[in-house]
Structure formats: structure tokens, C-alpha cells
Specification:
The protein has 1 helix and no strands. The longest helix has about 130 residues. The radius of gyration is 55 Å and the shape is rod-shaped. The chain starts with a helix and ends with a helix. The mean pLDDT is about 95.
Length: about 130
């Protein structure tokens, strides 16, 4: 009887242990593994969202920098064009001034030449009268 009771007790213990092991296994399969799968899925989604956010920010920053470079280039080109126009205007004014001075000088030379010729003619006429 005692051996039978021990065997029955040991069988009952093993049965409880087996039931506990089955319950633990069932909990792992039914609860823990789905939780782990969901956690992994959420982590992958979170990582993808973060990568998309970083990519968007990098793209925006690159676009902002490209716009700044284009604006700087346009500003530089505008400044160069302004400087070129100012230089061309100065050259045109100088040429006009030089042309005016030449015309004034030529006119003065003609006037002096006429005065000289008139004076010579008057002197010649006066010398013939005497």
C-alpha cells in the first residue's frame, strides 16, 4: 500500500508538473509569442517611421541648401551684371566726354586758324597800303 501511495503521489506530482508545463507552454504559444511578434512588428514600424522622418528632414535640408546656393549664385550674377552695367556706363560717359573735348578743341583750332588768317590778311592788306 505504501508503495502504491508513493507511486500514486509521484504520478500525481508528475501529472501536476506536466499540466503546469503544458500551461506554461500554452501561455508561451498563446500569449508570449504573439506579444513578442507584435513587439517586433511595432519596432520595425517605428524604425521605418524614424527612417522616413530622417530621410524627409535630410531631403528638406538638402533642398533648403540648394535653394540657398541658387539664391547666392543669382545674387552674385546680379551684382556682376550691375557692376558691368556701371562700368559700361562710365566708359560710355568717358568716350562722350573725350569726343566732346575733341570737338571743342577742333572748333577752337578752326577759330584760331581763321583769326590767324584774318590777321595775316589784314596785315598783308595794311602792308600793301603803305
Amino acid at each position: 500500500d505504501e508503495k502504491t501511495a508513493q507511486l500514486r503521489e509521484e504520478l500525481a506530482r508528475e501529472g501536476r508538473t506536466r499540466v503546469e508545463a503544458e500551461a506554461a507552454l500554452s501561455r508561451y504559444v498563446d500569449v508570449d509569442i504573439p506579444k513578442l511578434y507584435e513587439s517586433l512588428r511595432e519596432e520595425a514600424h517605428s524604425r521605418q517611421s524614424m527612417e522616413n522622418h530622417i530621410l524627409r528632414r535630410a531631403t528638406d535640408e538638402i533642398k533648403r541648401l540648394e535653394d540657398a546656393v541658387v539664391a547666392e549664385k543669382q545674387s552674385r550674377e546680379d551684382a556682376e551684371e550691375g557692376l558691368l552695367a556701371t562700368t559700361e556706363e562710365a566708359v560710355a560717359r568717358m568716350r562722350a566726354e573725350i569726343a566732346q573735348e575733341r570737338a571743342d578743341r577742333e572748333s577752337m583750332e578752326e577759330t584760331l586758324l581763321k583769326l590767324l588768317e584774318e590777321t595775316c590778311n589784314k596785315l598783308k592788306a595794311a602792308s600793301q597800303i603803305i
